[in-house]
Design a protein that fits this description.
The complex is a heterodimer of chains A (about 270) and B (about 650). In chain A, about 45% of the residues lie in helices and about 20% in strands. Chain A is α+β, with helices and mostly antiparallel strands. In chain A, the strands form 3 sheets. Chain A has a 6-stranded mixed sheet, with no helix packed on it. A 3-stranded antiparallel sheet of chain A has the order 2-5-6, with no helix packed on it. Chain A has a two-stranded antiparallel ribbon with strand order 10-11. In chain A, helix 2 packs across helix 6 and helix 3 crosses helix 4. The relative contact order of chain A is 0.18. By secondary structure, chain B is of the alpha+beta class. Chain B has 3 domains: about 270 residues, Alkaline Phosphatase, subunit A (3-Layer(aba) Sandwich); about 130 residues, no CATH class; about 150 residues, no CATH class. In chain B, about 25% of the residues lie in helices and about 25% in strands. Chain B contains 16 helices and 33 strands. In chain B, the strands form 9 sheets. Chain B has an 8-stranded mixed sheet with strand order 2-33-24-1-23-9-10-22. In chain B, a hairpin with a 5-residue loop joins strand 19 and strand 20. The radius of gyration of chain B is 27 Å and the shape is globular. About 5% of the residues of chain B have low confidence. Classes of the chains: A alpha+beta (about 270), B alpha+beta (about 650). Chains A and B meet through strand 3 and strand 4 of A and strand 15, strand 16 and strand 18 of B.
Chain lengths: ~270, ~650
């Protein structure tokens, strides 16, 4: 059930982000960030009580003016300060509802962007390191078997007893879906990046499916005790002479567009 | 406009365009292309041998056009000097590069002759943070105008790949990727890192790299700290570091290296792919990128993990390695990371015994494969103008394996004969490059192959400074400091001359050096005496002369010379060269010793003994071509109205420009 919901969610974002596939990675992320900022400020406008916020802000402005006018009277200053603090608390309460409404789509979007713009896809020339973790301790070396489909397995397998981990290398063959099989557990490895902004799997886990809603870079494991990750380098975007992570690009440009949206749509925040 | 008139025009326009197009095709001259292959260290004598052996059929084809020509090299015949001659058409008196190493005339402190870093003008100090208000600059110390400016001024596209002595690349219209002279991220010409728990390998005296002791505390994990560039944003410029955890599996004889969210699995004897490392100057705000390759030399019984010099990442260059800057980024996007340092083959690791002959050669093949990929990439998109492509592989590998070719080398008996085959294979690969260039040739394309110098054996080391001391030209007052660098052993006030760099001798002048001893009016007489005595020095073991010619610089280059120019250029005889100790100013006990370093081939001798090579599809009209002639001659092939001023036109003597 949860898996089906996850597939639907990923499919929904695939369709939603379809217009950005033709753009280079940075520009795709840039426009998504701008639209996200505008989208969130629009949601805020409609979910929040703009009239109450506006009234509250006027009241808070009045309190500040009162403090400034009665600086010679400590009693009055204290009274206005108390009202100001109370108004601030009410203001935070007003913000709570829209922020809660925004939080879920924001977290889903965050996870999707992390999965799509956070790391490089698998290289078809240099092997990728896969690390698997065993909850119940490492199996014996001679009983550890790896099957591959659409992949080349590059020996050796490194056993790290201290961490209960084993690592090995794989090399994708072609762009299609690939599978690993470890101890009878089938693991989806993913694509090698068939379009810009596609979901790139960075790990797999047999645990809670809910986690995969917010971390869609975690692949599905059909049973078994295995979890693990692929070593894929982070992507950095060259912006203004610096090397920005996708998080920096998203936060900066979505914030800028949200600020612009506040001005254009006359949103009270 | 009336409808009828509009329809008529609409019908005529495509026809007119078609006519104009065909007219253009008939009258415009097709684009001329010149492919210049710069093969550092290709020796004309070795080349002739390999052609006769049938190893180089494509070179034989090219030779059929204009013969196999010896190309006059620079004096001294060192690569930075020679390639500067090629670039500018003039000698060191104009371009100012006399040696790999120059020295400050007053303090005698040595520095790299080709480039230098200039710090930012203004800095704000906040606690121990130093925030620059302007960027640091790297300055190219080579003077003179590059010949290709005349081509780009005429709109002819020019691409120079791995161009020597051009770091940072000349600003202009040419596309340039800098080569020889490009430093690694530590600012040196190549500094490896070697992690080991083998007590016998741990030493503080390994030049050319860092040996880092590491230890396994029982959890099969070694914590390896990689030292990167200095952090100029912190007071005292501390070195930036990246930590790598190395997990070893001794049963599998393999390891996993965890570094900055990446994991790399390697078996013993394997080279890693390029690993990108981020060094944070100010965390999350300012960082520089480097790339390096690991090599697992041994896991059991002792960990021996080699890390190549940290190269400037071509995708995120911390220093200007290309012009325009996006050129290296485009190449890295198309081909992946590649060696950017000027000396990509790690000869120092071989000389210091960190890498064996076999391991060094593996690395050399990696370098050559990368270079071939770059070459094919550029050749496939070369449509018009000049494409210059530089290969360093012959030079550096023959430096290291001449001992396999030369029976008189003190290391010949201990060198496996198969490395002679490796030299042959390297020449064969270069022949394939020639073949590719010839395949790309059409009626409007010329192919030129040139090398900056040839090669000679380096069997005996001459300690120039020790000789000067023994002959009374230098006064050793601290015998215990003889083996220390930078003239720690001598008294300057009673020292007349000193050697520094590979071919340079300086007079300790009162009007130039601090604590100088020789008044200006005595300098020429002293140089004449030194010339006579140096040219008569013989090797007691063989009775042969050690120095073929000692050139008084002001006589050889009669024009005005820069103050850092040497007073004398030592032209060693074949088989001899200045010792490594001489290059940095120390005074070993013996004047002449066997050269037991794998660096067994040299060209830093008399220029007459190590000419370069010139092959061309264009016949020559002059019998004695020189590197300085090449810029003018190549420019003439494009028919530019004003040829560069330096050199001669070897393709058409009647048109000297």
């Amino acid at each position: 059930m949860m898996n089906t919901a996850g597939v639907i969610l990923n499919g929904f974002f695939d369709v939603l982000l379809l217009p950005f596939r033709t753009l280079p990675h940075f520009w795709g992320l840039f426009f998504i960030s701008l639209l996200s900022g505008l989208g969130m400020i629009t949601i805020f406008k409609f979910v929040s009580n703009q009239e109450k916020i506006s009234r509250l802000r006027r009241r808070m402005g009045g309190c500040i003016l009162g403090i400034l006018l009665h600086l010679s009277s400590p009693g009055m200053v204290m009274e206005f300060a108390g009202k100001l603090i109370w108004s601030n608390t009410v203001y935070l309460a007003y913000l709570l509802k829209p922020l809660l409404v925004i939080a879920i789509p924001f977290m889903l979007l965050w996870g999707q962007l992390d999965a799509r713009y956070g790391s490089s896809e698998m290289d078809k020339i240099d092997p990728v390191t896969v690390t698997v973790f065993f909850d119940d301790g490492l199996p014996a070396r001679d009983s550890f078997e790896i099957g591959v489909s659409g992949l080349e397995l590059v020996p050796p397998v490194v056993f790290i007893d201290t961490l209960d981990e084993a690592s090995f290398r794989i090399l994708p063959e072609g762009d299609f879906l690939h599978y690993l099989e470890i101890g009878g557990t089938s693991i989806q490895v993913g694509r090698t990046g068939s379009w810009n902004g596609c979901r790139i799997l960075r790990g797999f886990d047999s645990g809670s499916s809910l986690k995969k809603f917010f971390c869609p870079w975690i692949g599905r494991v059909n049973g078994g005790p295995v979890s693990g990750w692929y070593s894929l380098p982070d992507v950095r975007y060259r912006v203004l002479g610096g090397h920005w992570s996708w998080i920096a690009v998203f936060l900066v440009f979505s914030s800028l567009s949200a600020i612009a949206g506040v001005k254009v749509f006359k949103v009270k925040i | 406009m009336k409808r009828r008139k509009f329809l008529k025009l609409a019908a005529l326009s495509p026809a007119a365009l078609l006519a104009m197009n065909t007219g253009c095709a008939r009258t415009a001259s097709p684009a001329r292309r010149v492919i210049v292959l710069g093969i550092d260290g290709m020796d004309p004598f070795l080349l002739r041998n390999f052609i006769h052996e049938g190893v180089m059929p494509n070179a034989a084809t090219l030779m059929a056009s204009a013969g196999l020509n010896r190309l006059g090299t620079s004096n001294p015949p060192q690569s930075p000097v020679a390639w500067s001659n090629f670039i500018t058409g003039y000698g060191p008196d104009v371009h100012g590069i006399f040696d790999f190493i120059h020295r400050d005339p007053s303090s005698r402190m040595p520095y790299l002759s080709t480039s230098r870093v200039i710090g930012p003008d203004r800095i704000i100090n906040i606690s121990d943070w130093r925030l620059p208000l302007s960027g640091a600059k790297v300055e190219l110390l080579r003077k003179g105008e590059p010949f290709w400016n005349r081509l780009t001024d005429e709109g002819i596209p020019v691409t120079m790949v791995k161009l020597p002595v051009d770091f940072p690349p000349d600003k202009g219209k040419a596309k340039i990727l800098s080569g020889l002279g490009t430093p690694d991220m530590r600012g040196s010409q190549g500094s490896f890192t070697f992690f080991t728990d083998d007590a016998r390998s741990i030493t503080d005296k390994t030049s050319g790299g860092i040996v880092v002791p590491v230890r396994d505390y029982g959890d099969s994990c070694y914590v390896c700290t990689i030292k990167g560039p200095e952090n100029s944003m912190r007071a005292g410029n501390p070195v930036m570091e990246v930590e790598a955890k190395v997990w070893v599996d001794r049963d599998a004889d393999a390891m996993r290296i965890d570094i900055q969210n990446e994991s790399i699995v390697l078996a013993a004897g394997e080279w890693s792919r390029w690993v990108r490392m981020r060094f944070d100057a100010i965390p999350h705000i300012s960082s520089v990128y480097a790339i390096g390759r690991f090599f697992v030399k041994e896991i059991t019984p002792r960990l021996k993990l080699y890390l190549s010099p940290l190269n400037i990442d071509p995708l995120n260059p911390a220093l200007p390695i290309s012009e325009p800057q996006g050129y290296s980024i485009d190449l890295a996007r198309d081909l992946g990371p590649f060696y950017t340092q000027g000396f990509p083959e790690d000869t120092k690791a071989l000389s210091r015994g960190i890498l064996s002959d076999e391991e060094y050669l593996q690395q050399a093949w990696i370098v050559l494969r990368e270079r071939l990929d770059l070459f094919h990439h550029e050749l496939s998109r070369f449509r018009e103008g000049m494409l210059f492509f530089y290969f360093s592989s012959l030079d550096l590998n023959i430096h290291m394996f001449y001992r396999a070719l030369d029976h008189s080398s003190p290391l010949h008996a201990s060198t496996s004969p198969r490395f002679k085959g490796a030299v042959r294979e390297l020449y064969r690969q270069i022949d394939n490059v020639i073949g590719d260039a010839l395949s790309a040739r059409d009626a409007n394309t010329e192919v030129i192959l040139l090398s900056d110098h040839g090669f000679a054996p380096f069997n005996r080391s001459f300690n120039l400074n020790t000789w000067l001391a023994e002959e009374g030209y230098a006064n050793i007052t601290s015998p215990s400091a003889r083996n220390q660098d930078m003239f720690a052993a001598i008294d300057w006030a009673s020292t007349a001359a000193y050697g520094l760099g590979l071919n340079c001798l300086y007079v300790n002048r009162t009007d130039r050096e601090e604590n100088g001893a020789v008044p200006p009016e005595q300098v020429h007489d002293l140089l004449l005496r030194l010339k006579q005595e140096l040219e008569s020095v013989t090797d007691p073991a063989t009775g042969r002369r050690i120095i073929a010619n000692a050139y008084i610089t002001s006589d050889f280059y009669p024009g005005p010379l820069p103050p850092y120019a040497p007073d004398m250029i030592i032209g060693y005889a074949r088989c001899y060269r200045s010792s490594w100790e001489t290059t940095l100013g120390s005074y070993p006990e013996e004047v002449i010793t066997d050269n037991l370093d794998p660096w067994s081939g040299t060209h830093c001798i008399d220029p007459g003994a190590v000419p370069g090579t010139l092959l061309s599809t264009v016949p020559l009209s002059l019998p004695d071509p020189n590197l300085m002639d090449m810029g003018k001659s190549i420019s003439w092939l494009f028919g530019v109205p004003v040829l560069p001023s330096g050199g001669r036109n070897i393709f058409n003597e009647a048109n000297p420009g």
